Amino acid sequence: MSRRARGRVPAATGARSFACLALARRLLLLARMRPIALLLALSATAAARPRVEVAFVLDATGSMQPWIDAARERIDAISSEIAAGDPPPDVRFALVTFRDRGDAYVTKKRDFTRELATMRGWLKETNADGGGDTPESVLEGLKVGIVDLDWSAGDQSTMKLLYLVGDAPPHHYAESPTEEWLANEALKRGIVLHTLACGGMGEDGQRFFEEMARRTEGRPFRLADAPRRRHASVTTTTAGATTTTSLGAAVSGSARAYSSAIGIAYKPTAQPVALTPIAPPAIGAPSGLLGGGLRRITDASALSDLWAAHASLAGDTRHPAPPKIDFVKSELLVLGGEDAGLELVALEPGDGVRFATVRAGAPGPRFVVVPADARPIVIKGEMR
């Protein structure tokens, strides 16, 4: 065989070599692509995980130390209670503190973090100081909390909750944002504003806190004078704010209730409360009760007033007496009205509150007897 012939590769052998080389390249490319595909899959899973963002806008003037202490003590429990959902949400916290002009600062911002230790540290270094006159820079604090924090943008799987905690009405300076502007900015960004009015706040301050919550589809709470007590008697302000002594219960309870809107489910922490529906005596006329809310009756005087309203359309006809309730052992829940029905599905005890699961029903008031309990009721579910 000639030297030239010995140097040639047979055609069949060359074809097999090229095929093997192509296969090797293809396998190498697949090996390189597999981590990329895995990363993409993991990214998609992470993106699908619901998120709960909780920002505190906290009055840090002199009279607020007991509630700052309460926030420090409860932040770990608040975080774990929110994170205990199914699926477990990604929880982020932020803190804005405010005082007033002439103090060491007007507002101070700490942006969102997933690190609970960081949030705990922020609360630890926050002390009450300054103030003096009653109004504070509440509007400026809200503006930082609503506009300046790094809220997630355009994400339908995120629940954005802002908690205003304070004991004074706002100072209306010439440069202060208006309540209407703040509410519109919150709604535009999908932020729900809950308010926690502390201590002996005056009527003007209570009205402001309650109105800001209602404008942004949030809930107003009243924290009584002793945040370290576990329970307290429940009252209702003129605008209907729930009164409770527990900052932690107000925050974790409302956060869990609102997070159901993005598909997070929470298991009840205790057995549901026994419900006893009753059929009240017929009044021979439509009920004078209107609206799709829940009314809580805890004494005979309140029942007398409610029954008078219920029978108000019966005219001069003598109507029957209200149902007999032993208010030492029980209380009465009245759901819905003549124009809007509401059904009580379950009542479950929580940390300092009770969770009422409700759903829309046929028009007409419903009367349900439950065991007496001083804890306020946080409503979950559909209301008209």
Number of domains: 2
Mean of residue pLDDT? Answer: 81
Q: Give the proportion of residues in helices.
A: 25-40%
Radius of gyration: 29 Å
Low-pLDDT segments, ≥5 res: 1-19, 27-46, 226-240
Structural class: alpha/beta
State which percent range the strand residues make up.
15-25%
CATH architect. name of the largest domain: 3-Layer(aba) Sandwich
What is the CATH class of the largest domain? Alpha Beta
- Whole-Å distance between the termini? 98 Å
How would you name the CATH homologous superfamily of the largest domain?
A: von Willebrand factor, type A domain
Instruction: Name the strands of the widest sheet in spatial order.
Output: 3-2-1-4-5-6-7
Shape: globular
CATH topological fold name of the largest domain? Rossmann fold
Give me the count of strands: 14
Q: How would a textbook summarize the main sheet? A: 7 strands, mixed
Query: Secondary-structure element order, as H and E?
Result: HHEHEEHHEHEHEEHEEHEEEEE
